[in-house]
Amino acid sequence: MRHTETDTLILGAGAAGMMCAARCTGRVMVIDHAAKPGEKIRISGGGRCNFTNLGVEPARFVSHNPHFAKSALARYTQWDFIDLVDRHGIAWHEKTLGQLFCDGKSTQVVDMLRAEMAHADLRLDTSLTSLAHNGAQFEARLARNGRDERVTARAVVLATGGKSIPKMGATGLAYDLARQFGLRVTDTRPALVPLTFDGQPFAGLSGVATPVTASAGGAAFDEAMLFTHRGLSGPAILQVSTYWREGDGVRIDLDPAGRLAPALRAQRAEAGRVQLSSVLARHLPQRLVQHLAADLGLDRRVADCSDTAIDEVERALRGWTLSPTGSEGYRTAEVTLGGIDTDDLSSKTMEAKTVPGLYAIGEAVDVTGWLGGYNFQWAWSSAVAAAEAI
Ligand code: FDA
User: Contact 152/3 with Cβ under 8 angstroms?
Assistant: First the structure.
């Protein structure tokens, strides 16, 4: 069997693994079972990769230990990544809420990382058969096209990501290896994922989008909500899905700017014969107003509404509480919440506290960012933290 010696073996050529390879000195081998590296980068941000966010701050990351991400995020910031992108001449723009996207294709980011990691030995279509530590170094068995190879390495980096989108090759390998080496793994669940409901109550509204404030589990997000055949999606819902738990309600404020009650009162003063539903349809999508009409009694004249009645309609629209029964799961989730327990890793270096030479970075770790470029920034920052320590 062929034997290769390397200094650092990185498992996973995704965002974190490629960045780590780029910043590691010495001999670096990166393996991935996919045919191409950085496939999630390629499909991210609708093909334009939302590669970071101007508003990166630790509070926008969810973890069992909310302090864990601070050090890595502070040492390799969004400005460092922007600088890298600029040096490679990749044009970008801010979309909304500090989200930075490529002007062109997201493959520019993949190509940039490939160029940065040109010194690394990248092995694609390659699987890990086993990983052990023999007291002095790690020993990995790899398989490619039916041929086995033994690789010895001083350091191993777990960078195989989370469980989201198994169709793209996501596996729980990092969690399995972490457990094998005695690290704990927190409960994992799909996050940044559409929420579903029994009986498809919004099927008739499929395709309708409206700005809302969506709240669940103590977090609130002002963004667009989208009705789908299966339930609710859109950025506001993807964001709250990280905080929502089975059995909880999601509170939707359909009037985040607070314009509806004043509009109804003004209409009553000017021409009260107009139907409540007609006034609301000037501010909310018509199909949504129709959907709510029976429950809220919107088929009546504004003139017939007392102040109390208008207040009740406002309360209902601003505190619409829905009870999702589940989510679309890992099939469509952008990320995995939870992962390798941060209590078992150094926040400075991402090295396992009890296994010198073993590192975990990116989505495999129990650090999950908000929607909007935060998860890539965690991949870049955690990768650099590990690379600088190796
Ligand atoms: P990542 O998943 O990128 O890489 C893991 C690598 O390990 C993959 O190449 C995989 O093939 C490999 N691998 C897995 N199991 C293996 C095994 N058993 N053996 C060998 N190799 C294995 N984030 C963001 O900030 N901005 C955005 O615009 C988006 N958009 C987006 C869209 C969609 C559709 C998804 C699904 C996700 C996003 N994300 C995002 C999230 C972002 O893609 C994610 O957080 C990072 O890619 C995580 O980087 P990692 O390197 O940790 O894992």
Answer: yes
pLDDT at 272 over 90: no
Q: What are the two backbone dihedrals, phi and then psi, of residue 125, each rounded to the nearest 5 degrees?
A: 50, 35
Identify the residue whose tokens are 């390799």.
76
Indicate the pTM of the whole model: 0.97
Q: Which of 273, 276, 279, 271 is nearest to 299 (CA)?
A: 276
pLDDT in tens, 219-262: 999 999 999 999 999 999 999 999 999 999 999 999 999 999 99
- For residue 221, the 8-state DSSP code is E
Distances (CA, A) of 171 to 56, 104, 166, 366: 28, 30, 7, 15
Please report the DSSP string for 277-326 in residue order: HHHHTTTS-HHHHHHHHHHHT-SSBGGG--HHHHHHHHHHHHSEEE---E
Pocket test for ligand 1, best of 18, 144, 192, 334 (most atoms within 8 A of CB): 334
| Torsion sign across C-alpha atoms 382, 385, 388, 390 | negative
> Which residue among 110, 127, 375 is best mutated to probe the pocket of ligand 1, counting the most ligand atoms within 8 A of its Cβ?
375
Q: How far is the CA of 1 from the centre of ligand 1 (A)?
A: 31
Answer yes or no: are the C-beta atoms of 19 and 51 closer than 8 Å: no
- Hunting for tokens 């290769």 — which residue is that? 4
pLDDT confidence of residue 372: 98
CA distances from 331 to 71, 170, 202, 377 (A): 32, 10, 21, 23
Alpha-carbon torsion (38, 334, 176, 71), positive or negative = positive
